[in-house]
Amino acid sequence: MTLDSGADPEAIPRGTIICLALAAFASAMSLRVNDALLPKLATEFDVSLGTAAQVISVFATAYGLAQLFFGPVGDRFGKYRVIAWATAACAATALVCAVAPDFVTLRIARALAGATAAAVIPLSMAWIGDVVPYEQRQPVLARFLIGQIVGLSAGVWLGGFAADHLSWRAPYFFIAALFVGVSVALFAFNRRLPQRARTMRHASGPVLRRIASEFAGVLARPWARAILCLVFLEGMCLYGPFAFIAAHLHQAFGLSLSAAGAMVMLFGAGGFVFAVLSRRLVEFLGEGGLIRWGGAFMCIALLAVGYAPTWGGALAGCILLGLGYYMLHNTLQVNATQMAPEQRGAAVSAFASCFYLGQSVGVSLGGLWVGVIGTDSFLAIGAIGVLGVAIAFHKLRRRHLRAMASTAA
């Protein structure tokens, strides 16, 4: 991918991917800001912890369902342009969350926030897939995902800090202001993109028919169906338990919510290690090794967080969880960008849809179960689940590669 040197009119301007990473940062922060706020929200609105977790599950559900819309829209009107408009809408929905007068309104506002944030990360990945050759894509995606990694961690920390020292409304005001700044930058860069990076397709016919056709083309591919099932299970088994880690640390070790949020923030440190070392890890382990070790690390990490006798063991578990997650998930993402190149926007959006619907199911199950089996047992169930996902992905990938080799021969 050529960056802007001032001489090549077809070069991609410097800063385009940085802006996408900042948009991913804000989107991820919006997703995870409520994790450490759950006990505060439960007290503020006089509801159970499981009921308070609905502000997470409704966001994830809306985020997942909205993918069915944004993928084809991004292909039609230009992915970068749609991301810019989506971040402007995210600023508005975050502001609605900040001024919500009651829990019902907050849940509705969170659903709207999930729907508007749905375009940001998936369309960014799809745009990178359009402009970056496959052999260079994994390191570029890893660098882009630094924004998401830091945003996930910062969201948990910000929620915990606000729970202890500020109003629960304060994080939403901050997120709204952040989205405003990112949106302005994205619109500025969109005007400088060369035509080849705008990727607009002037398809004809009714919009709903085009959308159905796009997703039918993706689902017709067996490998695409396998990836979508795997990422749904990954989201359910990891992020269902993940939403309750801060509450678990608060209850199990008597940590303040800000301290618990800071510990969960170390999840991002593990992800950052992967992003920095991604090229070397890919060369050393290959995709198969990333899958196997990523699943093993996540399993060990969730068990450590759930059953460590001291908070130090849980701290190490949070770091290892981030490393393992990005080893596995980044490999799934790279495969998603290539599973249907002719409908890449729809393919990546379907991938994100399944991932976040899986998260919603996982958080909903946690809301039902944690009061009965405890947060530690729920984390253990997640540990077994993510290991199973990694094993299945490794076996299915080997089968897929053998089938491709036979077809080529």
Any descriptors?
single chain; 409 residues; mainly alpha; Growth Hormone, Chain: A; 17 helices
Task: Give structural notes.
The protein has 409 residues and is mainly α. The chain has one domain: Growth Hormone, Chain: A (Up-down Bundle), CATH 1.20.1250. Helices cover 83% and strands 0% of the residues. The chain contains 17 helices and no strands. Helix 1 packs antiparallel against helix 7 and helix 8 crosses helix 14. The protein is globular. The relative contact order is 0.16.
- Pick out the low-confidence regions: 1-9
| Element string (H = helix, E = strand) | HHHHHHHHHHHHHHHHH
Percentage of residues in DSSP E strands: under 5%
Q: How many β-strands, per DSSP?
A: 0
Biggest beta-sheet profile: none
CATH fold-level name:
Growth Hormone, Chain: A
**Helical segment tally?**
17
Mean pLDDT across all amino acids: 81
Q: Could you tell me the radius of gyration in angstroms? A: 20 Å
Per CATH, the architecture is Up-down Bundle
Straight-line N-to-C gap: 31 Å
The CATH superfamily is MFS general substrate transporter like domains
Topology:
Blueprint: H1 16-32, H2 38-45, H3 49-52, H4 54-77, H5 79-98, H6 103-117, H7 120-131, H8 134-165, H9 170-190, H10 207-219, H11 222-242, H12 245-253, H13 257-264, H14 266-307, H15 311-338, H16 344-373, H17 375-408
Helix pairs in contact: 1-5, 1-7, 1-8, 1-9, 4-5, 4-6, 4-10, 4-16, 5-6, 5-7, 5-9, 7-8, 7-16, 8-13, 8-14, 8-15, 11-15, 11-16, 11-17, 12-13, 14-15, 14-17, 15-16, 16-17
Short précis:
This protein is mostly helical and 409 residues long.
